[in-house]
Amino acid sequence: MEDLQARARRFAQALDEVWNHLDWEELGRLYCHEGGEAFFPPAQRDAIQEAGLAFAAELGELLPRGGASHYVGAAIAELPLILCEHLVLDRRIHWTQLPGPEADALARVMGAVGAPTPCTQTSPSFPVDHLWMVSVLTDPEAFPALHDELYGRQGLGGDRGGEHRRASRLVREVVARLRPPAILSTTDEELPFFLDACAELDLWVQVPARGRLSGIVGDVVRHLHVRS
């Protein structure tokens, strides 16, 4: 069995390869139509990776080896976490993302290093002890009305009632795959949806006092402890 140092080296090499082979100009256009590569200058790429490594270190302390995680809507900022769980912690990963150019771009680079790639299946076929769902319900394209409501903004429109129902269904579906004791990583904005879903499923939740800013959006992310 590989020792920890060997797994850490393999993780560092894979992350370096992935980061260097990402098409930052293409991704910049996807995130900001007129941005191109200027949307992700080298300093920002470094900051995104640093934030991802900090989250990976936190999860390394919280998650056991050999478990399973579900990442919902994960993208560039989560690549260090997914690689770390897969290569260092030897965990099974189910990664859900909407189909499109971004998912295709991430699948190309992750597949090249034998790492998990995104799929469109909402829920994994196996139970998980970690759920990561960060800045999904505030996505301005998928949930414009919720984006405005949860951030205290206005102007994007959308169907508030319909989006609330859709968000609640999605959250309940992914929480139902959790097998406590588990870790649930989400943002302060999305937290009420998860607390409601956990209450419906008779799950006990501990919300930590401290969180960490996410790498791109800058939302506060907390790792909740979930027990039955």
Unreliable sequence segments: none
Estimate percent helicity.
40-55%
Our measurement of the CA-to-CA distance between the termini, rounded to an integer number of angstroms, reads: 33 Å
Instruction: Give the integer mean of the pLDDT values.
Output: 93
What is the SS-derived class?
Answer: alpha/beta
User: What is the total domain count?
Assistant: 1
Give the name of the CATH architecture.
3-Layer(aba) Sandwich
Let me know the largest β-sheet. 7 strands, mixed
Order of helices and strands: HHHEHEHEHHEHEEE
Report the strand count.
Answer: 7
Please report the first level of CATH classification, the CATH class.
Answer: Alpha Beta
- Give the overall shape: globular
At the fourth CATH level, what is the homologous superfamily? Vaccinia Virus protein VP39
Short account of what is shown:
The protein has helices spanning 4-21, 24-31, 42-62, 79-87, 101-112, 144-151, 160-175, 191-200; strands at residues 68-72, 92-96, 128-133, 178-187, 204-206, 212-213, 220-227. With 228 residues, it is an alpha/beta fold.
Description of the molecule:
The protein has helices at residues 4-21, 24-31, 42-62, 79-87, 101-112, 144-151, 160-175, 191-200; strands at residues 68-72, 92-96, 128-133, 178-187, 204-206, 212-213, 220-227. With 228 residues, the chain is of the alpha/beta class. The protein has one domain: Vaccinia Virus protein VP39 (Rossmann fold, 3-Layer(aba) Sandwich). Strands 1, 2, 3, 4, 5, 6 and 7 form a seven-stranded mixed beta sheet that branches. Strand 6 (212-213) and strand 7 (220-227) form a beta hairpin. Helix 1 (4-21) runs antiparallel to helix 4, helix 3 crosses helix 4 (79-87) and helix 7 packs across helix 8.
